[in-house]
């Protein structure tokens, strides 16, 4: 399925964040719209119940973003149909009460601080031997 590859790539990013102990850095929350977009590609897109499921799941995407994804969605095989105009209208009806920001794309200028833990070395500077082959005679041990 088309949604599997993006979801796999996002999972790799999430795993990297966990491996670096950066779950609380704000990066995971920044990925949430991308995660929901990948899930949207994998969900059924036919009935009113499907529309309700999409609306309840995609809370980090605006109505404009959901509609754009559905309009651009191209089935991967001939057994799957394009998303119908009626289904997209159903989504818009479900989401018309939302007070979404007007932007379509994510704010790529958004920055958030990342804190890296400081782990001091147990090696003391006076125990380090600098080989002459490095040509670092200008360094003085203090």
TrEMBL record:
Domain of life: Eukaryota
InterPro entries: Dilute_dom, Vascular_dev_regulator
Pfam families, alphabetized: DIL (PF01843)
SMART domains: DIL
GO MF annotation, one: GTPase binding
Domain Dilute: residue ranges: 1-97
Annotated protein name in UniProt: MYO5B protein
């Amino acid at each position: 399925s088309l949604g599997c590859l993006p979801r796999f790539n996002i999972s790799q990013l999430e795993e990297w964040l966990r491996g670096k102990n950066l779950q609380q850095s704000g990066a995971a929350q920044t990925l949430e719209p991308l995660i929901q977009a990948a899930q949207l590609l994998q969900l059924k897109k036919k009935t009113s119940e499907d529309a309700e499921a999409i609306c309840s799941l995609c809370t980090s995407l605006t109505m404009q973003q959901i509609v754009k994804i559905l309009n651009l969605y191209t089935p991967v095989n001939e057994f799957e149909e394009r998303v119908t105009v009626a289904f997209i209208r159903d989504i818009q009806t479900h989401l018309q009460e939302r007070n979404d920001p007007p932007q379509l794309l994510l704010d790529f200028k958004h920055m958030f601080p990342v804190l890296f833990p400081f782990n001091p070395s147990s090696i003391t500077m006076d125990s380090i031997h600098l080989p002459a082959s490095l040509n670092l005679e200008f360094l003085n041990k203090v």
